[in-house]
Specification:
The protein is built from six helices and six strands; from the N terminus they run αββββαββαααα. The protein folds into two domains: about 1-115, no CATH class; about 115-150. The strands form three sheets. Strands 1-2 form a two-stranded antiparallel sheet. It has a two-stranded antiparallel ribbon with strand order 3-4. The protein has helices spanning about 10-20, 50-60, 95-110, 115-125, 130-140, 140-150, and strands spanning about 20-25, 25-30, 40-45, 50, 70, 85-90. By secondary structure, it is an alpha+beta fold. The structure holds zinc ion (ZN). The site of zinc ion has 7 residues, from loops.
C-alpha cells in the first residue's frame, strides 16, 4: 500500500497554507510557485489540487463553495487571507447577492464568524489552548480558531 505521508485533509492543508503565507500589507500571500491559472495559487489536499482561495474560504466558513464564485476584496488572486474572501454567484450585482447570501446563511456562516471581543478573549487564553473543545463549544472550525489565535487572521487586532 501507499508508503508516502498521509494525504493532508482540507483543514490541515489550509492551516499549513495560512501558516506559511507571506503577509504583504493586509494580504496573506500563498507561497508556492504552482499556479492553477494566472495569479491563482493552489493547495493540495486529499491528493487533489484546489484553488487556494476557494479551499481557504470553504474550510474557514465551513460551507461548500460549489457553484459559488469566491472573490478577493483586495483584488490579489494570490491572497488567501480569509478576511479578504467573499462569496458570490455568477452574474450581475455580485455584491448584492453576497449580502443576501449572508442573510440566508445566517445561522451557519454568522455563527461560524468570530467577533472582535471573542478574538481578544481567545488570544488571552493560556497555552496550550484546547482548540478541539473550543470548536465543539463555539461551532467555529479549529482552523479558524487557530488562525485567529496565532494572528493569521484578525491581524488588525494584534
Ligand atoms: Zn488580500
Amino acid at each position: 500500500m501507499a508508503t508516502g505521508p498521509k494525504p493532508r485533509t482540507k483543514q490541515q492543508a489550509v492551516e499549513k497554507a495560512l501558516k506559511e503565507a507571506l503577509p504583504v500589507n493586509e494580504c496573506l500571500i500563498r507561497q508556492t510557485k504552482k499556479s492553477i491559472s494566472i495569479g491563482y495559487k493552489c493547495i493540495t489536499a486529499m491528493a487533489r489540487e484546489y484553488y487556494a482561495h476557494r479551499l481557504v474560504y470553504e474550510v474557514m466558513n465551513n460551507i461548500s463553495v460549489k457553484g459559488l464564485v469566491i472573490r478577493h476584496t483586495c483584488d490579489n488572486p494570490a491572497c488567501i487571507n480569509p478576511e479578504h474572501l467573499v462569496a458570490g454567484s455568477h452574474g450581475d450585482n455580485v455584491t448584492d447577492k453576497v449580502n443576501k447570501k449572508r442573510h440566508l446563511f445566517g445561522e451557519t456562516a454568522a455563527n461560524a464568524r468570530m467577533t472582535e471581543a471573542f478574538v481578544k478573549q481567545l488570544r488571552g487564553f493560556a497555552k496550550p489552548v484546547n482548540f478541539r473543545s473550543l470548536c465543539n463549544e463555539t461551532g467555529i472550525s479549529i482552523g479558524a480558531l487557530k488562525a485567529a489565535y496565532y494572528g493569521h487572521t484578525w491581524r488588525h487586532l494584534l
